């Protein structure tokens, strides 16, 4: 366990010392959201209808952007081999890495989402739904994405491939989260959708670290 | 028999285009799926037989 | 029974046994698949009555439904074969999983294309974001993902393992994707065939469909066997028994 804790600590420290790592996806998030009014229609009424979906798509893409580098440095500098040799549980290790990823991508995105809500004229009733759906949904994105990142860690052009592998798996999260925000906006109940997101999070927490752990071992046979 | 003439069969009650387009596309894809392994096998056998002959020729001199 | 299964499993693990055994199957499989396809198509295209709402465009069902069914079960078979490889390190399973991917993707593509073409006269548009069309599209993306990942891996063993892991992750996701998409939007007619219920179709329409489904599965078995034999030839090319085949 101590190795996992040390790794999480080290990665968070690295992220804190290198703000680009977590700030760039945030900027990306902001810019993508700003593109939509320019490309589609700046009319507030129209924007308020699509804002939930747009923010979620932007969050999803921003998450993907930072996934690519999740394991790359560890493969390159040999840390990964050290973990595998240490006999430490790979399950805990992949869970820890996914947690780190969420802290530097999903969490800031969630905290910044109200700002985007204002920019995109999100209906007032939908703010809390947006916040809670991002808080519950982005960890699922990080967990699923960690599997893809582990699979492609030692590939040279892994980034694009990673997107191809992971995007279809993100569809259910996107559907339920965007629907929660939309329904909150028109004054309907959205607890069902949030409950579904919670169920996905529980499932992802339980299963994806196994897959990511198994995938990590592949990067050794080089 | 549902159709009384060939022309009627081809027309498929005004939906001929859609029916035959989908059957045609399917036939193309299926043909590709079948032909690929057959051609691959032929190439594989030829290449490997060549390799074997080459190895035999080179073996005594080496 | 159990012992017989274990013996069969061990035999299936032997590429040589598989190669020699399937030599005899190919002809009969091709005959059965081709024959049933002809019977099914003749019955379906010539003898089945036209649908009272959709007219003759419903005859697309005889390729659309079997292709869609097969695309889904092929993914399942690919994931199971991948799991067998991951757990017992059976080379044959890895080869089977590898060759299923493009075939399954081809059938997925057939289902999508025929679905779109069928949609034009029925719904008035080529593509709708209907639940089952969308989840088939996601299935196609999952197939593409597995194929792309296998291509990208440098070592062969890693490519098999990575493909298997991704296929298993996708397998868990398929029901979730299906459910979420269905909940999200439904325009598609309810499933034509349900195992638990009595079919609502006229028997003259239903029989050709069932025959076509059987034919599609036979065809799939045939193609997978053909492709697996190629994999065997390639990987065992330095073995004595393959040399004999090459020399003859």
UniProtKB/TrEMBL annotation, chain A:
BP-aspect Gene Ontology terms: cytochrome c biosynthetic process; cytochrome complex assembly
Record's subcellular location: Cell inner membrane
Entry superkingdom: Bacteria
Alphabetic keyword roster: Cell inner membrane, Cell membrane, Cytochrome c-type biogenesis, Membrane, Transmembrane, Transmembrane helix, Transport
Membrane-spanning parts: 21-40, 46-67, 99-120, 126-153, 160-182, 194-216
InterPro entries on file: Cyt_c_biogenesis_CcmB (IPR003544), Cyt_c_CcmB_bac (IPR026031)
GO cellular component: plasma membrane
One Pfam family this sequence matches: CcmB
Record's bilayer topology term: Multi-pass membrane protein
Keyword Lipid biosynthesis belongs to the record: no
GO MF annotation: an example: heme transmembrane transporter activity
Family to which this protein belongs: Belongs to the CcmB/CycW/HelB family.
Task performed by this protein: Required for the export of heme to the periplasm for the biogenesis of c-type cytochromes.
Protein name as annotated: Heme exporter protein B
Originating organism: Thalassolituus maritimus
Taxonomic lineage: Bacteria, Pseudomonadati, Pseudomonadota, Gammaproteobacteria, Oceanospirillales
TrEMBL record, chain B:
A Pfam family recorded for this sequence: CcmD
UniProt KW keywords: Cell inner membrane, Cell membrane, Cytochrome c-type biogenesis, Membrane, Transmembrane, Transmembrane helix, Transport
Transmembrane segments: 20-39
Membrane disposition: Single-pass membrane protein
UniProt keyword Lipid biosynthesis, yes or no: no
Subcellular location field: Cell inner membrane
InterPro entries, sorted: Haem_export_protD_CcmD (IPR007078), Heme_exporter_D (IPR052075)
Principal cellular location given in the protein's record: membrane
Top-level division of the source organism's lineage: Bacteria
A GO cellular component entry from the record: plasma membrane
Any GO BP: heme transport
Similarity-based family: Belongs to the CcmD/CycX/HelD family.
Primary role: Required for the export of heme to the periplasm for the biogenesis of c-type cytochromes.
Listed name of the protein: Heme exporter protein D
Species of origin: Thalassolituus maritimus
Automatic annotation (TrEMBL), chain C:
Gene name for this UniProt entry: ccmC
Keyword field contains Cell inner membrane: yes
Record family assignment: Belongs to the CcmC/CycZ/HelC family.
Transmembrane as UniProt keyword: yes
Domain of life, source organism: Bacteria
GO terms under cellular component: plasma membrane
Organism in which the protein naturally occurs: Thalassolituus maritimus
Role summary: Required for the export of heme to the periplasm for the biogenesis of c-type cytochromes.
GO process terms (BP): cytochrome complex assembly
Compartments, as annotated in UniProt: Cell inner membrane; Membrane
Membrane protein topology class: Multi-pass membrane protein
Transmembrane domains' residue ranges: 25-48, 60-87, 99-119, 131-150, 162-181, 205-226
InterPro entries attached to this UniProt entry: Cyt_c_assembly, Cyt_c_biogenesis_CcmC, Cyt_c_biogenesis_CcsA/CcmC
Name of the protein this chain belongs to: Heme exporter protein C
Alphabetized UniProt keyword annotations: Cell inner membrane, Cell membrane, Cytochrome c-type biogenesis, Membrane, Transmembrane, Transmembrane helix, Transport
Domain Cytochrome c assembly protein stretches: 24-188
GO MF, one annotated term: heme transmembrane transporter activity
